[in-house]
Amino acid sequence: MNASAVVTVEGFVAESLATHGRDPRHLLQHLIRVQQRFSYVPDAAVEALSAALDVTRTQVRAAVAFYAFLHERPRGAFEIRFSDNITDRMLGSRRLIRLLIERLGLSGLPAWGRDLIRDDGRVSVGLASCTGMCDQGPALLVNGQAVTNLDAQRVDRIADLVQEGIPLERWPGEFFRVENNIRRRGLLLGNPATDGAALRRLVDEGADAALAEVERSGLRGRGGAGFTTALKWRFCREAPGTDRYVVCNADEGEPGTFKDRVLLTDYADLVIEGMTVCAGVIGARRGFLYLRGEYRYLLPHLESVLQRRRAEGLLGTRILGRDGFDFDIEIHLGAGAYICGEESALIESLEGKRGVTRKRPPFPVTSGFDDQPTVVNNVETFLASARVVQWGGYWLRGEGTDQSAGSKILSVSGDCARPGIYEYPFGTPVHRVLSDCGAENTQAVQISGAAGATLSPAEFDRIIAFEDLPTAGSFMIFDDSRDLLDMVRNFAAFFAHESCGFCTPCRVGGALLRNLVEKVAAGQGSEYDLSEMRHIGAVMREASYCGLGHTAPNHVLNTLDKFPSIYRRRLAREAHTPSFDLDAALSEARGIAGRDDPGTHIHKLSGETA
Amino acid sequence: MAEKPRVATASLCGCFGCHMSLLDIDERILQLVDLVTFDCTPLTDIKILGDCDLGLIEGGVANAENVEVLREFRRRCKTLVAVGACAVNGGIPAMRNQFSLAECLRESYCYGIGVHNPGIPNDPEIPLLLNQVHPIHEVVAIDYFLPGCPPSADAIWTFLTAFLEGRPIAFPYTQIHFD
Amino acid sequence: MSKTFKLDGREIPFETGQTIMDAALAAGVYIPHLCHNPEFAPHGSCRVCVVDVGGRQVSACTAAASEGMEVDSSSEAIQATRRAILQMLFVEGNHVCPACEKSGACQLQAVAYYTGMLAPHFTHFFPRRPVDASHPDVVIDFNRCILCELCVRASRDHDGKRVFAISGRGLESHLVIDSASGLLGDSSFAASDKAAHVCPTGAILPKGRGYETPIGERLYDREPISIVGDVRAHEEEVL
Ligand SMILES: Cc1cc2nc3c(=O)[nH]c(=O)nc-3n(C[C@H](O)[C@H](O)[C@H](O)COP(=O)(O)O)c2cc1C
Ligand code: SF4
Ligand code: SF4
Ligand code: SF4
Ligand code: FES
């Protein structure tokens, strides 16, 4: 909302091009700026960017249509998006959405991909996938800035601010306060301080010694897949290529995960140090931090850390005074696409394109950014690497299990007294986390996000470790007052919304699955529909192209097995029910005929018109 | 001797082409009447559906009456078969799903070429149309599908003989086509 | 000695770098496929070529062949997965075969026959999609597009034009045309482009022709695609 100066679209694009360059790979970054400024991407911007960057206008439009935070048509001057994770819903977000809509004089409810836009253009209300504020939700984004701890009072106030047209800079600062909520510190969170010790050791003892420490530590990736970090770095180092790149995956899109947000807030120096160490080991001169759009409020902070480190000689040219050790980092923003956390889709997005998963192999370590060898690691992995190089591999091995050295940082949310960040040694059982965070009468834990596993109480003594329960860190708790079908509905809609659309099983299967879940939730489902859900889920798991589609049906398949009653209690008596609402399917005809007598209705069960 | 299996057929939103194809089995129809008893079907003019072993449905579901008939068939028939493209996926009538019902009716009854006395018919006797045309498996459970527009007489024959003899149903390559 | 792997029990020779699909096709063994066309880089999006390698499902068109691997391409389980994928493609678009000029010579249809698909099984989406007849020589019916991106790849990699792209995401993904109006007639597309001749379905068709071959004599009327081969190998006959 800086409506102060009148800027033409062409002028704005020209300025963006002048400041940020004409590399076609910056397309997405230009688009994000245009969106931010004009609340949409006008045709004039499409034409100007297409001409300047030598990409077709179709490619520009295709990118706009792909990213949930870019729009072809104007959104409100205040563009509001409620975080729509199940944890937000559990904290009452639906009620608050209705309240705001009513206060703003809008009608209806926003849905995925369908925003409510007020006629005067002042405000629009939409949804966003989990914005990573589950420990302080319900949350929303207003013009990309996170607002936390929503309650009726705060929503009321927001409605006033919007009605009065008060620019964001003058909104109460506490609206935008994001807490770290670190509840349990371990190996990594114990101490945020760094004075460049890892880098110094790298420079003093050489890249081989640094890599040897990472190898010795047994460190495995913290982003989910758990690939051995040293191996990744070594592959990349040895891969043929003219340039090498380091990419920090700060997309943190997995619903219920917010630990990278905290790491980037309080431990940014260490994360960047880890990236720099990696650059030294593999011989990279450029790095990227891919920051999810939801965390754009962190941008100034991160830029300032980068700037300070440059000034301190820890980043930029001649790092720590050593000739030839040049490495710098650019921050690229995402724009609302969960798939862009998948490393190859992330690289596509870094290159300015739609975030569609690449064919693998080749893996990024041999052919990543610009088709050059690239290391992509999670925020937490880089943080751990910095400490490992500083304190040695044995330091990490001192905790954890055989196959899972060190600790894991969990994002705990849902039904518990103390949601927040908890760091545990690998090997910690689920029940320990539950008792530490003050969870009671727990019915289920969703571990590792929507894509992860649904655990029933019988499994609470399983341990967090790659050999048992691997997790990217999300830990969502549901007590026995919850209807788990609400969770399933939320996740099924999430995956259908976030599928990149490249492959058939995930693109179509995900939508079919969502529709079946909704059908059952509406009390119109049958036993047959449950078997169909299993069938579609199995095809998605087996035949999808990437991890999103492979894991998208997990929550359905898990709950069908472990919590069958959430479905069963809603089934119709028949073994088969129509795939659509028969009576509603006569609505148009009733309207045209101007009739609504009993003869114009179809009875659900009997099938006879009355 | 055990009673002969009873067979019923119906045409919902179709063109009777599939029924024609059934008649196209030519002299084999004599064999067929030996093998089965026809219950309610446009071929016999029996109007009331009794309990049947086999129901053959041509056409998709386009209006409230189609729904009623189809459900009655599902209740009465042990085995229900979708015969032909329209029953299988909505077929040509489902091309109207590209438009709203109002658009379709206005085009047909008001603005279309050669329309006299424009006006959308509104007699309570006329079954109300559904917003969209649906294949029959979207309304009731279907046991077998026989694609084709229409399925060839040979395909129908292959199905009927295998079904009546209790053999697994398998078609030669040339008998399966979607058009 | 050349290296081999086993495909449904049969030894298939291959060279390093070949995919399972390359090697199978070279050996004359058919694995169903839609988005794959040997003239273009493997794509891996349709998933119809799914095969089982040691209990894991991979796409034959993108998975590298390796010595001694055992590939299952014909078990009922694999065929059932393929059938489900094809059924998804059918319910995603609007495939009214009786009213389609491509019918009988359509690869989507032929692969469906090959896998024993009799009906679309799932619930239809019945999307509303346009037909673009703005070009003098070629018509695009988006109802029949399966997003295989062959036209995208042909136009970009062969014709050097970038006429096509995929826009949107998830089920909203759709083919778009690069022109100010979004219409094919206003783009640089020409009937002689490679992109005009690669569509495995009836989505891209030459104008003014259709239903020329009598039923019973069309490409896939008598013999399955596993014997007849892809549409593109029969360009002259079918177009
Ligand atoms: C759909 C999908 C989403 C993902 N999202 C993330 C993410 O948000 N952050 C992340 O670090 N890794 C994510 N990953 C995993 C990455 O692909 C990749 O494995 C990881 O960044 C590698 O880093 P690591 O070895 O340090 O774990 C995702 C994977 C998939 C399939
Ligand atoms: S599984 Fe397929 S459609 Fe889903 S995100 Fe991956 S590539 Fe895209
Ligand atoms: S493209 Fe193929 S499958 Fe689709 S309608 Fe035409 S013939 Fe049928
Ligand atoms: S138009 Fe044809 S070639 Fe192009 S993506 Fe669609 S189905 Fe594939
Ligand atoms: S042919 Fe292999 S995925 Fe399409």
User: Which regions of chain B are unreliable across 5 or more consecutive residues at pLDDT < 50?
Assistant: none
CATH class bucket of chain B: Alpha Beta
- What is the number of helices of chain B? 6
CATH topology of chain B: Rossmann fold
Structural class of chain A: alpha/beta
Write the H/E string of chain B, N to C.
EHHEEEHEHHEEH
List low-pLDDT spans of chain A.
Answer: 606-610
Number of domains of chain B: 1
Q: Biggest β-sheet of chain A, characterized?
A: 6 strands, mixed
Number of helices of chain A: 24
Gyration radius over CA of chain B: 18 Å
Overall mean confidence score, pLDDT of chain B? 94
| Oligomeric composition of the shown chains | heterotrimer
Q: Do you know the CATH architecture of chain B?
A: 3-Layer(aba) Sandwich
Proportion of strand residues of chain A: 5-15%
Structural class of chain B: alpha/beta
Q: Into which percentage range does the β-strand content of chain B fall?
A: 15-25%
Q: Could you walk me through the main structural features you see in this protein, from its secondary elements to its overall organization?
A:
The complex is a heterotrimer of chains A (610), B (179) and C (239). Chain A has helices at residues 9-20, 27-38, 43-53, 57-66, 86-90, 93-103, 152-164, 197-205, 207-217, 229-238, 259-266, 268-282, 299-311, 343-350, 379-391, 393-397, 430-436, 484-498, 504-521, 527-543, 547-551, 554-562, 565-568, 587-593, and strands spanning 78-83, 116-117, 123-128, 140-142, 145-147, 182-184, 245-250, 286-291, 328-333, 374-378, 407-414, 420-425, 442-447, 453-455, 474-479. Chain A is an alpha/beta fold and 610 residues long. Chain A folds into six domains: 9-66, no CATH class; 78-179, 3-Layer(aba) Sandwich (Glutaredoxin), CATH 3.40.30; 184-397, Rossmann fold, CATH 3.40.50; 407-482, Ubiquitin-like (UB roll) (Roll), CATH 3.10.20.600; 485-568, Up-down Bundle (de novo design (two linked rop proteins)); 580-610, no CATH class. In chain A, a hairpin with a 5-residue loop joins strand 2 (116-117) and strand 3 (123-128). In chain A, helix 6 runs parallel beside helix 7 and helix 9 (207-217) packs antiparallel against helix 10 (229-238). Mean pLDDT of chain A is 96; it is low at 606-610. Chain B has helices spanning 17-23, 28-35, 64-76, 85-89, 101-111, 153-164, and strands at residues 6-11, 37-38, 52-58, 61-63, 77-83, 129-134, 144-146. In chain B, the strands form two sheets. In chain B, strands 2-1-3-5-7 form a five-stranded parallel beta sheet, with helices on both faces. Chain B has one domain (6-94, 131-175): NADH:ubiquinone oxidoreductase-like, 20kDa subunit (Rossmann fold, 3-Layer(aba) Sandwich), CATH 3.40.50.700. Chain C is an alpha+beta fold and 239 residues long. Chain C folds into two domains: 3-74, Ubiquitin-like (UB roll), CATH 3.10.20; 89-208, Alpha-Beta Plaits, CATH 3.30.70.20. Chain C has helices at residues 20-26, 76-92, 107-114, 150-158, 225-228, 235-238; strands at 3-7, 10-14, 50-53, 56-59, 70-72, 131-132, 138-141, 164-167, 174-177, 204-206. In chain C, the strands form three sheets. Chain C has a five-stranded mixed beta sheet, sandwiched between helices. Chains B and C meet through helix 4 and strand 7 of B and helix 3 of C. The structure holds flavin mononucleotide, iron/sulfur cluster (SF4) (3 copies) and FE2/S2 (inorganic) cluster (FES). Residues 221-225, 227, 249, 251-254, 339, 341-343, 376-378, 381, 546-548 of chain A line the site of flavin mononucleotide (FMN). The site of flavin mononucleotide has 22 residues of chain A, from strand 10 and helix 21.
